[in-house]
Amino acid sequence: MTIGDQIKQLRTAHNLTQQEFATKIYISYQSVSNWENHRSYPSAEIMLLIIDTFDLPLNYFMDKDIDPTTSQEETLILSSFLKCMTTSRDEAPTLKLVQQLSGLPAERVQHYFPSYDDLVYTLINKVDQDIKIRVEKRLSDHESVLSIFINDMAPLLYHKRETLHLLYTRPYIKGVWTQFIKAKYQSLLKKYNPQMKKNNLDTAYLIETLTTFISIWLSQPEIEPLAQFQQRITYLVNHSMSSWRF
Fold this sequence. Notes:
This protein has helices at 3-13, 18-24, 29-36, 44-53, 68-87, 95-102, 106-112, 116-140, 145-159, 161-169, 171-192, 194-198, 200-219, 226-238. It is mainly α and 246 residues long.
């Protein structure tokens, strides 16, 4: 099922016209029509907005029926995309460049990723997949958010530091990555902590604080060692701002 088919299925399941669907996500109905008729594709940002608006799983638009050969080719394409990102800080890699580096025929790359944004969307889901699983498990055990952040999430992030450094330092992907992270963890916190559902502002501040910690940490030219980062966060949390000296 293509992304356009999925959007049409989602729209009809909610008994919405193309105009009503478009209004919900603040775009023109022509865009919805183009997606459903396979004339264009939604951006990664729009896919995340649809997921957030309709409370869908974050991997909603990913192909769920992948055979081993498909997985190998997709992994090669994603790896080639990351390699392209290392060569240019400010210019997004083109699908043609990724295809050339992967060594696969253009039609194979097009088969998996009809657009650049499909590639971005898949990459951020793949990078975050096991992190989400671990964090969600700990939240379901009713562990404190801070403990999970320092003792569970930080080690997983550090393990993927080279890839995450690219996501936090390339302007053409940083925005959609941070949007994804904030939307996902806000959803998880509200799911496992009913109190946060009652206070959206507290949740927003918490998410913004934690994601800022991560962004600063992983965007440095020399990434701070894990133990040092964990000590830093523990210190900052345990000392009020009034005790700081500027």
